[in-house]
Amino acid sequence: QVQLVESGGGLVQAGGSLRLSCAASGRTFNRYVMGWFRQAPGKEREFVSGISRSGVRTYYEDSVKGRFTISRDNVKNTVSLQMNSLKPEDTAVYYCAAKETFYDAPYYNEGLYDYWGQGTQVTVSS
Question: Which of 12, 75, 82, 119 is 20 to 30 A removed from 34 (C-alpha atoms)?
Answer without folding.
Answer: 12
